[in-house]
């Protein structure tokens, strides 16, 4: 192994341990580069394990020349290629799976400085092209992975937005129920107070009549009238099944008819889809009311917007 061959491989970007092993295995710069390219996907441990296959160890035949002639090279009987030493022949056998080799008296002339320079330049270009191809593939894989990540992120955001809207709808419905239950509780308390007052009044009238010797007819106590428990509707049920809404937006007025059981949240979603308006609240001028996210879970009938209403979209 010459230091110049090792320096060339180091300048081309190969690791020193691999470069030394390549030159030792192949016996020359050209074979070393081919060997490095052939084994670039393997670890250093894998490529240092000696091959045990018969195909990796070529069978050498005696030189075909006259008696007493010295073998100066090796030749592959399957493809006719000549090699300076056994290492190059073994590398050729590993690469091509050729097994029939023989000694040859033909001497392989060393490359001239110009030929060696041209050969190295050719090898450098091949190596650069190969690395460029790998780099382009890496960029393609990176773009594909980025597209997958963006798609996954968008799907996750859509799911989160959908869950958020459902949670808002559930919270609005829960607050509406709490408000109705609070109103019902207040009504029950008021009814109880009125019943107690009426009962005390009748008892006082009875006691006074007994003292004066009069006979009185007691009216049914308000407290004896059964009081319904549960939510009390703020308005009586309407016979209308549709609501005609006039929606005033920054882009103009929109008139639409909705089923009476449509929620205000569904009206806001329709405006978002068709007009691109993100609704925060609806305002009714007469009577003056503001419907925000708390009221979005209520139906148009429950909010008193049946049979028609005019709302300002904000």
Structure description:
The longest helix is centred in the middle third of the chain and has 100 residues, at 113-212. A hairpin with a 5-residue loop joins strand 2 (73-76) and strand 3 (82-83). The protein is built from seven helices and nine strands. The relative contact order is 0.07. It starts with a helix and ends with a strand. It is of the alpha+beta class and 314 residues long. It has a five-stranded mixed beta sheet, with no helix packed on it.
TL;DR of this structure?
The protein is built from seven helices and nine strands.
Write the layout of secondary structure elements.
Elements: H1 3-11, H2 16-26, H3 29-38, H4 44-48, E1 59-61, E2 73-76, E3 82-83, H5 86-96, E4 100-104, H6 113-212, E5 242-249, E6 252-259, H7 264-275, E7 282-284, E8 289-291, E9 308-313
Parallel strand pairs: 1-4, 5-9
Antiparallel strand pairs: 2-3, 2-4, 5-6, 7-8, 7-9
Helix pairs in contact: 1-2, 2-3, 3-6
């Amino acid at each position: 192994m010459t230091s110049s061959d090792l320096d060339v491989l180091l300048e081309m970007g190969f690791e020193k341990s691999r470069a030394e092993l390549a030159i030792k295995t192949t016996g020359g710069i050209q074979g070393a580069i081919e060997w490095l390219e052939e084994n670039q996907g393997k670890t250093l441990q894998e490529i240092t394990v000696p091959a045990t296959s018969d195909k990796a160890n070529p069978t050498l035949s005696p030189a075909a020349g006259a008696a007493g002639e010295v073998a100066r090279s090796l030749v592959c009987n399957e493809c006719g290629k000549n090699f300076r030493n056994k290492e190059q022949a073994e590398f050729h056998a590993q690469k091509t799976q050729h097994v029939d080799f023989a000694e040859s008296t033909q001497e392989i002339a060393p490359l001239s400085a110009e030929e060696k320079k041209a050969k190295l330049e050719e090898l450098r270009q091949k190596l650069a092209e190969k690395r460029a191809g790998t780099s382009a593939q890496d960029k393609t894989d990176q773009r594909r992975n980025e597209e997958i990540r963006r798609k996954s992120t968008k799907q996750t955001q859509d799911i989160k937005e959908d869950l958020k809207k459902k949670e808002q709808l559930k919270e609005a419905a829960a607050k509406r129920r709490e408000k109705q239950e609070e109103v019902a509780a207040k009504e029950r308390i008021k009814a109880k107070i009125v019943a107690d007052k009426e009962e005390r009044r009748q008892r006082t009238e009875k006691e006074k009549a007994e003292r004066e010797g009069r006979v009185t007819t007691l009216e049914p106590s308000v407290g004896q009238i059964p009081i319904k428990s549960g939510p009390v509707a703020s308005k009586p049920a309407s016979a209308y099944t549709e609501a005609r809404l006039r929606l005033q937006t920054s882009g103009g007025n929109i008139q639409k008819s909705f089923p009476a059981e449509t929620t205000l949240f569904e009206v806001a979603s329709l405006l978002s889809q068709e007009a691109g308006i993100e609704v925060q609240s609806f305002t009714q001028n007469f009577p003056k009311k503001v419907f925000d996210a708390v009221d979005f879970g209520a139906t148009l009938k429950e909010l008193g917007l049946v049979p028609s209403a005019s709302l300002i979209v904000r």
